[in-house]
Amino acid sequence: MPEISPRLTGINEGGDDGWGVFYKARRMKADGIDVTELTIGEHDIRTDPAILDAMHAAARGGHTGYAMIPGVAALRQRVADRIRNRTGVATTQANVLITPGGQAGLFAAHVAACPPGRRALYIDPYYATYPGTLRAAGAQAVAIPTRSEDGFLPDPAAVDAAAAQGAASLLINSPNNPTGVVYPDTTLRALADICTDRDLWLISDEVYDTQVWQGTHLSPRALPGMADRTLVIGSMSKSHAMTGSRIGWIVGPEPAIAALIDLATTTTYGVPGFIQDAALFALDQGTAFEARIAEPFRRRRDAVLDVIARQQIVRAIPSSGAMYLMLDIRATGLSGQDFALHLLDSHRIAVMPGESFGRSAAGHLRVALTVADDRLVQAVETLCAFAAKAAISA
Question: Is 28 exposed, middle or buried (0-12, 13-18, 19+ CB in 10 A)?
Fold first, then answer.
């Protein structure tokens, strides 16, 4: 057959996509094996029935044809109002493009921000799709390493050094997946200054903005001079347990959104109208609804940290948000990959190896807080006991 474009074959640079343990766990479950899955950020509750009722009513009411490509006007305005109320930044529907989920938004934002071949910076550890997304958009993906001992916060000096070599954009994620870290104001202001000084686009992945357990979430778009160089990625997936509905947005300067509408016209051709109507209904439920969706992860985070505090081998990275905890298991002498595979084989517990999220997270695990409290606590107690045995053998 003819050659497949290097644009696609280079997405994973010929290597693994980082999801090997997850795929193995799913195969085991398909074979009837009971596996405790602490892998992906998938709520253990389903989308609220009221949201599904709104979706059903919209579909039955006829909103099943082509929807407006930028998004239904009412939803764009509702997202704009939400952003304005949360950040204080003037935002209208002309600043909003509705996308088929946050992942599509990440891709589109980098197409907008990065001329072909330009350097696109991102922080390591990172959500597993980041480097592939940047390469798929035609950019040169450049990871900025961080250190576990620093809570995986980026070093502005390292970011600036990388930006000085011809970068077009910087991608950040706070609250962070996989680490659970919420970037403090000082870090965000330093990164914003770099973007201004080096004339970078800042792409801010804020899909976990409703899951903040300590401190507050600051959108860098709200910082002085940043509204005209920031593209914010949002999503209904985490805030409203609507992962499968594939509904998100990009918020940015009007000229960028206008250009992104052209991209949507030639790629996704918009988002189904009945899903947009359901998203509008969900957003209209207000912050109390979002807090109810988020609360189990706060509670489970605290329960897991109590388990970790009772032993000395596994160390938890300080976590202030999101539905994950990053655990340092380097004292066992095992890589995250080997630890995760052995834990799955011996105890039927699936966690994500830190190596799935970059070199900086080697020797770590990401634990998703996505099963019932008692089962989660039991799984983490087993993980810690497994780590203690491995450390003795090391």
Answer: middle
CA-closest candidate to residue 211, choices 186, 235, 246: 235
171 in a domain, yes or no? yes
Handedness of CA 160, 319, 23, 346 (dihedral sign): positive
End-to-end CA separation in angstroms for the chain: 50
φ, ψ dihedrals at 303, nearest 5°: -65, -40
Measuring CA to CA, how many Å separate 227 from each of 105, 208, 250, 335?
17, 20, 13, 41
The single residue listed with the structure tokens 């969900």 is: 282
Last residue of a domain, one of 257, 285, 313: 285
Length of the chain: 394
Kindly tell me if the per-residue pLDDT of 214 is higher than 70: yes
Amino acid sitting at position 167 = A
Q: pLDDT by residue (tens digit) across 5-40?
A: 988 888 887 655 568 899 999 999 999 999 999 999
Q: How many domains does the chain have?
A: 2
CB of 235 closer than 8 Å to CB of 279: no
- Residue 180: strand, helix, or coil: coil
- Of 255, 285, 315, the one marking the end of a domain is 285
Note the Cα 261 to chain centre separation in Å: 23
Contact of 152 with 133, CB cutoff 8 Å: no
Collect all residues with Cβ–Cβ distance below 8 Å to 5 and sequence separation of at least 6: none
- Sheet containing strand 119-124, edge to edge, reads 96-99, 248-251, 230-235, 201-205, 167-173, 119-124, 140-145
| 3 state DSSP class of 85 | helix
pTM: 0.96
Do 268 and 308 sit in the same domain of this protein? no
| Range of the structural domain that residue 307 is part of | 6-46+288-387
Specify whether 350 is located in the same domain as 374. yes
CA angle 148, 11, 267 (to 5 degrees): 115
Full DSSP string of 18-58:
S-HHHHHHHHHHHTT---EEE-S---SS-S-HHHHHHHHHH
Beta strands in 107-166 (DSSP E): 119-124, 140-145
What is the average pLDDT across 308-326? Answer: 96
User: H or E stretch including 324?
Assistant: strand 324-328
